[in-house]
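dude i think i finally got it to work??
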Amino acid sequence: MPAAQINQPSNQIRLTNVSLVRMKKGKKRYEIACYKNTVTSFRAGNETDLDNVLQIPNVFINVSKGQVAPNDDLKKSFPGMQREEIVLEILKKGEIQVGEKERGQELERVHKEVIEIVAGRLVDPKSKRVYTTGMIEKALDQLSSQGGHAGRQPGKAHGDAAEDRSKSRDQSSATADSGVSTPARGNGEGDGEAKEKEKAKPVWTGVSTSKSSKSQALEAMKALIAHQPIPVARARMRLRITCPASILKQSVKSAPKADGEEGEKSNVKDKILGFVEQVESQDVVGEEWEVVAFVEPGSFKTLSEFISSQTKGRARAEVLDMAVTHEGD
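look at this
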């Protein structure tokens, strides 16, 4: 069977605009050629025109070589299905292949999100000031290099971080992972205990595209707090929230779910407390409900917007302390 020709824009290098979707059936592997960034859009229901998704409406054994899948193989792998139906099956359920360039871009995006989340939730425990994203990035790079792992964070090289890696290699025989001094020599049992404790500490090896930015940011914060390459502690804002007691039980709808179903119903009080990490005190004073509580800095803006929109300005959130530190999770 003649090889299929991949239709590419004349100013594009061959295959640079192709996103592959693969499906394995037994020992056979099948591929379809799609335009970049359209498969996820199709699966989410945002793109319905297959001409905008499929480069070629055909099934291949190897797209890059233009090898079309033989009909006999398809009949055995997909009994009772026509070629067009098989294309749709692979499009809907196949595994999206990500190229090096796309993988690098995705790593860069996740890396940036992780750094921003961490920078918004950690402070210097003495000054209670937040660190810049650059300082957080440098500290995490230092952790990954001193932990014996190559820094996998994408993006441009950082001179300071490279210098830290060099220093850590030179000192690796004399120092343990960031912020932990080497136990005195001559005591084998003590050395063993110290090593076991060090192994138990959270480690940071860089970002990955297989986990969410939020979960990786939590891992990064745990490692920074455990090893202290720079002095850090989790930050919480201490707020006093007041709201007329008469509107606390007013119903509030959550955002619709991805499948189109309505979100869960709650009331104003539940919604406000949903933003809170810890309640210090709450009481009803006269006709007003008052709660003093701690929230993460990243939640304050959303809380303020909710109070403003849902209570029409009748409730308010007053900041009592910008950065109360604690070392717990």
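The longest helix spans residues 100-121.
im so relieved honestly
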